[in-house]
Amino acid sequence: MLKGTTAYIVAVLDTLRTFRSVNLRLTIDGETLDTDAMLCAVANAVSYGGGMKVAPNARIDDGWLDMVVVKGVSKFEFLRAFPRVFSGSHLDHPRVISRQARRVRIEAAESVPCLSDGELVGRTPIEFEIVPGLLQVLRPSYLPERRSEAKKMSAPDREDTG
C-alpha cells in the first residue's frame, strides 16, 4: 500500500486520466467569478496531501481562508506544472488564481464532490466561512501565545512547568 507523497502523486495521475475541468461559479466575499477549473481549494493551512503546498500563503491564525483555483489547462500542462505545488511556486502560473476571503461559496452546473483532506464532505453547492476566534484551543502554559513569540524562544529558554 502506498503512503504519503507517493500515494497522492499516484492518485493525481490516476484521476487525471479521465478528469476534465468543471465550470464553477465562485462567490468570494460577495464578488462572483465564473471560471473553468481543474482544482479549487479552500484552505486554512499551507499544505496537505503528502506535503503539497497548495495554499503557501495560508495561515491558520490569520482570520482568512485562502482559495486557490487552477483554471482549465491541458493535461500535459497540468502535469508539467504539478511539481511546483511542492514548493508553492505554482501560484506564479498564469492559470492559477489565489485569493483570501472570509466566505467562499462554490456552485457548479453539475454536482461536484467536495473533499476535505482526502475525505468526501459533501457536494456542490458548498459554502465555507471563517469565523475568527470561534474555536477555543488549549495550549500548554510554556508555549507562547503568538507565533512571533515562538520564533524568539529557543528550546533552552523554555521552562519545564511540569
In short:
The chain has 162 residues and is α+β, with helices and mostly antiparallel strands. Helix content is 16%, strand content 32%.
Tell me the structural class.
Answer: alpha+beta
CATH class: Mainly Beta
Distance, first to last CA: 41 Å
Strand ordering within the main sheet:
4-3-2-1-5-8
Could you tell me the radius of gyration in angstroms? Answer: 18 Å
| Second rung of CATH, namely the architecture | Sandwich
Characterize the biggest β-sheet: 6 strands, antiparallel
Shape: globular
Task: Give start-end ranges of low-pLDDT stretches.
Answer: 153-162
Strand segment count = 8
The CATH topology, please? Tumour Suppressor Smad4
The number of helical elements comes to: 3
In the residues, how many domains can be counted? 1
Range of strand content: 25-35%
Relative helix content = 10-25%
* Pattern of helices and strands: HEEEHEEEEEH
The overall pLDDT average reads 84
What's the layout of helices and strands?
Layout: H1 4-16, E1 22-28, E2 31-43, E3 65-71, H2 75-81, E4 96-101, E5 103-108, E6 113-116, E7 119-123, E8 126-129, H3 147-152
Antiparallel strand pairs: 1-2, 1-5, 2-3, 3-4, 5-8, 6-7
